[in-house]
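Hi team, as promised in this morning's meeting, here are the two structures we talked about. I've kept the exact order from the run log so nobody has to guess. The first one is mostly here for context; it's the second one we should focus on when we meet again. Sequence first, then the predicted structure tokens.
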Amino acid sequence: MKNTIGSNVSVTLFGESHGTAIGAVIDGLAPGIEVDTDFLDFQLSLRRPFGKISTSRQEADKFEILSGVFNGKTTGTPICIAIPNENTQSKDYSKTYGKARPGHADYCFDEKYGFRDYRGGGRSSGRETMGRVAAGAIAAKV
């Protein structure tokens, strides 16, 4: 399973919904590009679950830029954005072990890869979108 997209600028997604963290590494950006952390925070807030049919799992989705940014600007090295998973109650998913959840990518993921992380979907979880949203928020300002 390949988790990197792009050639001149690439984005590598990492993590699982019930792992330590989830995020993205953005590589190929020139140094000196402004990184708007308020915009990044706002974009991440838009993908959070809400409403009656969404998951009841709530996360702060507070990101940390681990590398590639200094004094609000890109350094030219890979940018690593990590978002810790804080509400990982994997035991809640024990009753769905071996079952595909309706409206989720569980079945497709299992058919394609022959393996599925039943603790909330792993890489087929909705939380996986956070790395994409974080990378998109950086790219939108370039």
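And here is the second protein, the one for discussion:
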Amino acid sequence: MEEAKPVPDAPVVEVTYQVKITPRLVLAIVGPYVAEKFLEQVKALAPVSLFLFAFQIIMLRSGVLQAAGITMGLLAVVLGLMFFIEGLRLGVMPLGENIGATMPAKATLAIILTAAFLLGTIATFAEPAVATLTILGGSIPYEKAPLLFDFLSRRTLLVLILAAAGVGIGAMQGIHRFVKGRSLKVTIMPGLVICLVLTVLAAFDKNAKDLIGVAWDAGGITTGTVTAPLVLALGVGMARVLGKGDTGMSGFGIITLCSIWPIALVLGAGLVFSWSGSFMAPAQFAALPRASAALEGEGTKLKDLVG
């Protein structure tokens, strides 16, 4: 039999495409995607905006002042939310889910819980809504609520640290629930009982009672635009890999746990400060205007020297 002769290599045909990138082509490709994301935020913001406009006109019976400026501000909010939410979808949520999916195979339980605590804490520090505490604190009359004024004017960082630590504790508890396969109802009861007991104690304290509302509102920090997607993605990824539930719904509930412990920590700190008397005294409050005037005077002198 004759040996088969090798077939010579077929000539390589190089195919090139000449596509001219024009603004019209870019708009045709990107436009529908951007329009869809833009309309999502418009639909989310429209009910609240329309309600406020209607309330201003019908109930208060006054026109809308600076309508053009308000409209431009709402447009800026829509654009900002569009880019922000898209960043969460593409970056933050996949990151949290990947962390939750890979940690169980590569780390011990102690490392997993520590990572969950740090992730929840750092995410809380990134919440933009926390900056409003200082603004709200300045509108509180010291004579009616001295401890509340002290917490929201001088100790906003402490409130933020307590809320962040509470979210971290809740994230640890939620991850521990996934690992042990425990029920959400059983896991949530200890923190809920602690919150109720501290609330009752604060209600009978003349200073700490003013912090009850702030403490329970602090639990809402977990529903922020940064904390909720990241912590929820972490829980869903962890639950899916561990396979402790029948469906993907087993990963939900971690936000509830993260909402409880900030309440407990803020109430506990308020009771400690009230019982120890470690908050702004009337003499210190009276000295605030003089201190502010002195700081403004020093700033004016510094500007004159620089100028």
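Starting points for discussion:
The chain has eleven helices and no strands.
Confidence is low (pLDDT under 50) at residues 301-306.
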